[in-house]
Structures are given as C-alpha cells and as structure tokens.
Automatic annotation (TrEMBL):
InterPro entries: tRNA_(Gua-N-7)_MeTrfase_Trmb. It comes from the Eukaryota. This is tRNA guanine-N7-methyltransferase. The keyword S-adenosyl-L-methionine applies. Keywords: Methyltransferase, S-adenosyl-L-methionine, Transferase. GO terms for cellular component: tRNA methyltransferase complex. Coiled coil: none annotated. GO terms for molecular function: tRNA (guanine(46)-N7)-methyltransferase activity.
C-alpha cells in the first residue's frame, strides 16, 4: 500500500532539504537484499517505477544483481511493490530511494565493502548520519569490483536555465563513478532530448582519462539500445516515431586514487580535489 501522503510529481528539486538528507539504509544492507554479492552489479540511476530493471531481471535473472536508484519516493514505493509480486526475483534486485548526488558514494562504498573478501589497508566507513567529507585515502582506490554496468536513461531535462543545476549528471557524479567502477565496465546514456544527452555526454567526455566514448565525434550517437531492453519512456518515444539519442562509455584502466570527492555547501554540491 502506497502512503496517501506521497504525491507523484514529474519534477522534483534535488536541492530541497528533504532530498539532501542521506537516505537511511538498514545496517545489513546490501547483504540481506542480494543473495550472491559476487555477481556483477547493474546500476540504474533514475530508475523511475523500476519497469526497465524488472524486465531486465526477468529476462536475465542469472546475469546480474540489479540496483535501481530513484529520488521520487512514490516511484520507489511502486517499484518495491512490484518486486514483492515477483518472488522469483527476490535476492537479485533492489530499489533504493535516494538522491544519487548525495548518496552514491555511500551506497557504492557499502557494496564495495560487502564484496571484498580480503582486508585492505584502507577502509571507508560512512554512516547514514555522517555529514563529513566523502573521501578516501589518496593512496587507495575504493573499487566496487562487481559494478559492471551503469545506466542513466531519460533523466528529468530541467529545461529552464535556472534549473539546469538540478540535472543528475554532474562532474561530481562522474568522478564518483570513476572512483568506483572497474576497468572495462560501461556507462550507457540515453534521452529523447538531444541537448540533455549531449550535456550528460560532455560531462563524461571531460573526464576522458577515465571514460572512453564509443564514438570519436560528438555528432555521432549509438544507434541502438545496447542493453536490448527498452525503458517505459523509450517505448513511448519510439511508438511516436521520435528519435532517441544514445551514448556509451567504457571505464579506462586509468587509476583515480588521487581524486577526492568532497561535500561542499548545504545544497549538496561537492568539490573535486586533485593531488
């Protein structure tokens, strides 16, 4: 049952105070939601009601653990309810309500720690109530070794110029992914708004030492959905014979242990320090 207090809004302000608070995770997350933490991880940032991940997990139940992140509470609730109706997916998929630009480091740290079988010299411990800088020892690289695929699909375009800062793909988010993603893992981007895709793509191309674009020219796009499973938005757009713009990046071998991602202002902006 979805609480009546939840209201569905197409657009939300990620800088609103309620979305700047770290999400509360169970102490035993992710151990209790994924039966086999050694599986590759598929991460969908901005998963909406979870239809894409649920379809993918149904068709490829043994390929990945599936994790969806969504900022809108009602959508997360709906996605979680859909999982309950698919008991065959229990232990393979989870949805977390959070602001990716606030919680991504903490979530990937938890996953990294859970999948690490040997003790390392540097361990990052971040709890839900901490407001300290999110950082690592400059000599460490907190790889989430199982993170093999990241999707950011049809994000809120935030068309108004004054709202552009609300867009999900920021330099800090790209840096977080660079720190945690292992070599050869991939990032898939798509949008039906060309300018939105181009801006997301630019953020990754500006960190080209860590992410290699599948196309040399910014005027070229990936023609097909490389995952093979469309999102609900994608189905609607294609049915209207409208274009979808896509880009694919591969994580390079370049280490990024000299990058620290740190929280800045109360609005959640973070600064990147390069040593």
């Amino acid at each position: 049952m979805i609480p009546r207090s939840f209201r569905s809004r197409q657009h939300v302000n990620p800088f609103a105070s309620k979305f700047q608070q770290p999400t509360i995770l169970p102490e035993d997350w992710p151990q209790t939601v994924f039966h086999d933490l050694q599986r590759p991880l598929f991460l969908d940032i901005g998963c909406s009601r979870g239809g894409f991940l649920l379809d993918l997990a149904t068709q490829r139940p043994d390929d990945y653990n599936y994790l969806g992140l969504e900022i809108r509470p009602i959508f997360v609730h709906q996605a979680q309810d859909r999982v309950k109706k698919r008991p065959h997916l229990h232990g393979h998929i989870d949805f977390v309500g959070c602001n990716a630009n606030v919680d991504l480091d903490r979530l990937l740290t938890r996953l990294s720690q859970a999948t690490t079988t040997t003790t390392t010299t540097t361990t990052i411990t971040i709890t839900a109530n901490q407001d300290d800088d999110v950082s690592s020892d400059r000599n460490s690289t907190p790889r989430c070794k199982n993170l093999q695929m990241v999707c950011i699909q049809f994000p809120d375009p935030h068309f108004k110029a004054r709202h552009a800062k609300r867009r999900v793909v920021t330099p800090e988010l790209v840096t977080s992914l660079a720190r945690f993603m292992p070599p050869a893992s991939r990032v898939f981007l798509q949008s039906d708004v060309q300018s939105v895709l181009d801006e997301m793509r630019l953020q990754f191309r500006q960190q080209s030492e860590y992410f290699q674009d599948a196309r040399d020219s910014v005027e070229e796009y990936i023609p097909e959905n490389v995952v093979g499973i469309p999102t609900e938005r994608e189905v609607s757009v294609v049915e209207q014979n409208l274009p979808v713009y896509r880009s694919l990046f591969t994580r390079t071998e370049q280490e990024c242990s000299n990058l620290l991602v740190q929280r800045g202002s109360r609005r959640g902006r973070r600064r990147i320090t390069v040593f």
